[in-house]
Amino acid sequence: TMALCLKQVFNKDKTFRPRKKFEPGTQRFELYKKAQASLKSGLDLKAVVQLPPGESINDWIAVHVVDFFNRINLIYGTMSEYCTERSCPIMSGGLKYEYRWQDDSKYKKPTKLSAPQYMCMLMDWIEMLINNEDIFPTRIGVPFPKQFQQVCTKILTRLFRVFVHVYIHHFDSIINMGAEAHVNTCYKHFYYFIREFSLIDHRELEPLVRIPQGWGCA
C-alpha cells in the first residue's frame, strides 16, 4: 500500500511535525479508515476522492486536509536536509514563481523567506489550525464554522506550494532516494482531490502544469 511504501522510503523520525491522528470511535476516524481502504484497494484515484454517499462534505474535506498535511509533512521532513538556507534562499517554484509568507500575526505583509523558513512557518500555521476545535471540531454535534472550506482552501493552496518546491528544486534527491513513485502517487491523490471539490484556484496550479510526464498529472 502507499502508506506502507511511504514508511519504508521515508524516515518517519524526520517528520517535520508530529502527526495529527484521528480519535478511534469518532465519525472522522471511520471516514479516515474508509478513505484509506479505498486507497489500498488500488481503485482509480479519481474515484477514491469522491464523496461517499450520505457523508458530510466538510467531514470528508477535514479528513483529507489532515491526511495530506501528515503525508506532505513526512515527504518534506525527509527532504529537508537538501533544502537549506544556502540551497534555497527564496521559497520558490523555479524562476517564475516566488512565494511570500503572510500570517496576520508576525508577518502582516507578504514577506520574503527562505524555503526552510517558509516550510517551518507553514507547518506551524497548519498545525495550529487543525488543532483548533473552533475550526476543525472533533466533538459529535459541533458544527463546522461557516468559513471552514475557505480555511481549507488556504491550507491546501499552501501545501500545494510544497509540491511545487520539491518537484522543481529537489526532484533529483527524490529520485536518488527511490521515492519518486510514492511522491507522484501522493501528488496525484492531492491533485484529484482539490480538482474534485474545486478547492484551489487554477492559477495556483500553473507551476506544475508543464512538469515532465510521469511526475504528476496536469
Automatic annotation (TrEMBL):
What GO molecular function annotations does the UniProt record carry, in alphabetical order?
kinase activity
> Does the entry feature the keyword Kinase, yes or no?
yes
Q: Does the keyword Transferase apply?
A: yes
* InterPro entries the UniProt entry points to: MOB_kinase_act_fam, MOB_kinase_act_sf
* Residues where Zn(2+) binds: C83, C88, H165, H170
Q: Which SUPFAM superfamilies does this UniProt record tie to the protein?
A: Mob1/phocein
The alphabetical list of record keywords is:
Kinase, Metal-binding, Transferase, Zinc
Coiled coil ranges: none
User: What PANTHER family does the record point to?
Assistant: MPS ONE BINDER KINASE ACTIVATOR-LIKE MOB (PTHR22599)
What protein name is recorded for this chain? Answer: MOB3C kinase
